[in-house]
Structures are given as C-alpha cells and as structure tokens.
Amino acid sequence: MNTSKSASAPEQILLRLDWQVIRHLDGLLQGDYRSLFYGYGVDFADLREYQPEDDIRYIDWNVTARMNSPYVRQYHEEREIAAWFLLDLTPSVDFGTAQSQMLKRNVLIDFVATLARLLTRHGNRVGAIFYGNQIDKVISARGGKLQVLRLINDLLAQPPLEKAPFTNLAPLLEAGLHSIKRRSLVFVISDFISIPGWEKPLSLLNQRHEVLAIRLWDRREVELPDIGLIVMEDAETGEQLHVDTRDRKFRQRFNEAAQRREALLSDSFKHAGVDALSLSTDEDIVRAIARFATLRQQRRR
How far is the C-alpha of 166 from the C-alpha of 295, rounded, in Å? Predict the structure, then answer.
C-alpha cells in the first residue's frame, strides 16, 4: 500500500498500523476490546465486606485495617475510559538485533499508537508519562485522532539517551501515583531492566487503577547463539565485555541467568496482582495482543 508523500511520519505510522494491525485485531476480537482491558472508567460508589468471589485488587486496606475485616470498594462503571501510558525510554529500550530489524523502542511506539487508536476511536481519552533519566514529559489525557498523532510525534522526537547508570523505574511509577487522580487504565511499558525497588510502587499503583505491564524484550537478551568471539555491551552503562560464545558452559550460564531474571520478574508481577504481556522485537504484534486478550478473558471466567 502506498502512502502519501506529504503525510507526516506520525500519520504514516498510524496509517500503517490501521491497515496492518488494527484492522486484523477488529476481525480477531470482533470489537470486543473488553477482553483486552476490562473497560473501567469508574467512580467510587460504596464499601462493603469482602466476599469470596470478589477481586482482591479492590480491597480497601485502610478500611480493612480499621475494621479488622476485609472490605472492598465498589465502583460505578462509566462508558468512558481514561487510559495512561507510563513509558520507559531509558537506554536499554534502544536495544535490538539485526535479525529482528526492530528496536524495543519501535515496538513501544507501535504498541502505544495501536492501543491509543483503539481507545480514542471509541470516545476514550489517553495520556502519557515519558521517563528517561527523569520524568521528561507528562501529556494530559485527551481524546481524538490528534491526540494519537501527538503521542507518536512526541515519541519520535524523544532522543535516545546516552549511556547512564542503571535504570530505576520507581520514579516513573511514583509519577503515575501522583499524576493520575481519577481511577484509570494504566499501561506500564518497559523492559523492566531496573534496579530493585519498583515492585512496591507498582503494587500501590495497581491498588488505585487497573494496571497492565507490557514487558519489552529481545531474543538475544535471553538466548546467546554460538557465533564466536563477540563484544557484549551493557545497554544501560555502555560497559563492554569480550566473550567467546563458542564456550558451551558460558552460553549455559548466560541462559540460566536469563531464566532466573524471567522468574523473578514473573513473581514481581504476580505479587503486585498485575497481568503482563511480553512483546518481543520479532513477534507479530497482532498475535501478541490477541493472545493477551484471550488470556485475560479466561482469567475473568
């Protein structure tokens, strides 16, 4: 399909996604996007005692402590959803392999544009918080196609960061806690390569909002092929290490370390009560989102 030469880069990206991603998702999900996100644009209504079938995410822990019995918050559901994207734009998101021809940053942009488009075309509002070494930008939640184009444009304009000390995701999550006042749908999009300490603010964020973790990754971060002598560089700090990938034991240790990281990450999401979607640089985004929607639909039954 040809695009107009006069179209801006954000318009070209959105047009590509409309044809290659959103059109296919419409067919697969048949317009039922509540299987992807529960659709909560909600206001607090009342408190009542916890019952066995209640969702534990709605337990009000302050009231529970005072009453010595678990209480849950009840909400009125509204038609409009307010959604926020908490975006990790630290140096490690600019990693990608030649085979995939995609950086994690590219996957992030495509995912944000796709979900923003799906949400806004049904009358919902979307906003975003950009995080590099600090909170770089807060984009207030608004609706419409122009808001989607603004998100894409601002992401394209965000320059890759120079190498820096290890990422700390806690400030991004804390910014979400302080900036998002009304109960919202929150997408935390990151590779979650971070020093410890982000788990607690993620859990707190999930107590106030419906939070989905979108974990970006590249296959070469978990699998090391036998390709001889190479230079490995830390995506965050720039530190380099010469390694011989022909060493089978080294490849095994690398894979085992990656598996331990995966297990710890899964445990962190589980303890926070947050559903997580893994998005690889070499995976079709339509299949990934459809798979995630099916998983969430099954968990609601």
Answer: 32
Residue type at position 137 = K
3-class state of residue 179 by DSSP? helix
Which CATH number does the domain housing residue 211 bear? Answer: 3.40.50.410
Please check whether residue 72 lies inside any domain of the structure: no
Q: Which domain holds residue 24?
A: 9-40+81-295
Q: Which residues of 90-239 form beta strands (DSSP E)? A: 125-131, 135-142, 185-190, 210-217, 229-233
In a domain, 69, yes or no: no
Q: Is 67 domain-assigned?
A: no
Number of independent structural domains in the chain: 1
Q: Is the pLDDT of residue 84 over 90?
A: yes
Q: What's the pLDDT tens digit per position in 239-257?
A: 666 665 666 776 777 777 7
Tokens, residue 1: 């399909």
Beta carbons within 10 angstroms of residue 176's beta carbon: 26
> Which pLDDT score is estimated for 40?
46
> How far does CA 52 lie from the centroid of its chain?
30
As a whole number of Å, the CA-based R_g of the chain is 20
Which residues partner with 77 through β-bridges?
Answer: 42
In a domain, 48, yes or no: no
Burial bucket for residue 89 (CB in 10 Å: 0-12, 13-18, 19+): buried
